[in-house]
Amino acid sequence: MKLHGLCQLFKQEMGGCIIDVVPSYRSILVSFDLMTIGHQSFVQKLQHVLDHCRGSLAEEAEPSLIELPVYYGPEVSLDAKVITDHTGLSFEEVINIHASTLYRVYAIGFAPGFAYLGNTDQRIAVPRKKTPRLKVPACSVALAERQTAIYPRESPGGWQIIGRSPVNPIDYQRKNLSLFEVGAKVKFIPISKTAFLDMGGVLSQEEHSLEDQRFQEGV
C-alpha cells in the first residue's frame, strides 16, 4: 500500500484523535491527542485500521503536478563548476537533464517546506559537500546524490546549488504551509534572468553586479 494512501486512510478513520500524519520514505509518524484517547486505545484503533480497512481505500487519484520555474544563470548556480567537473558534462547539458525529469515528492523535512525530490538522472548524481555552506540563499535549487530540492529559506546546507526559483515553497497563509505534499509530481521549468526578476526572484547586490554571461564549456 502506498504511504500517501495510508496517510489518507489514517486521517479518514481516526481524524478525531490524530494531530498530524507525517510520511517519509518508508515510514509514517502519527501524532495523537492524549487528551482525546489513551495510548493503548490509540494503538488498538490504529491496528484495527491496518487490519480491516485497507480494502476500503479507493484508488488514489493522479498526483498533482507542480511546475516550478528555475533560473540557472551564473549568478545563482553556485556549484556549476563542481557539478560539471564531477559529471564530465557541460552545464547546459546538466540543465537540460535536470529540467527534463519528472520528480516525485518523497518526503518533507530538514526544514519546513524542504521537499526531497527524486530521482534525478544518474548522469547528474553528485555527492553532498564535505563542508556545508553556512548560508544557502532562499529558493536555491540543489542536487545531492539522486535527489534534488529547493531551500525554502536562507539556511546552512550541504547540497550542490544549481539554480534559483522565484517561487518560495513556503507560504504561511497557505493551509498546508508548503507548496509540496508527499506524492506530488514536480517539473522544473528553465526561465531567463529577466523572467526570474519579473516573477519576484531575488538577487543580492553582489549578484546583481555580475555580468550575465555564458559559461565556458565544461564550467
From TrEMBL:
Pfam families: CT_C_D. Gene3D superfamilies: 3.30.1360.40, Cyclophilin-like. This is Inhibitor of KinA. Keywords: ATP-binding, Hydrolase, Nucleotide-binding. It comes from Endozoicomonas lisbonensis. It comes from the Bacteria. InterPro entries: CT_C_D (IPR003833), Cyclophilin-like_dom_sf (IPR029000), PxpB (IPR010016). Residues 1-180 form the Carboxyltransferase domain.
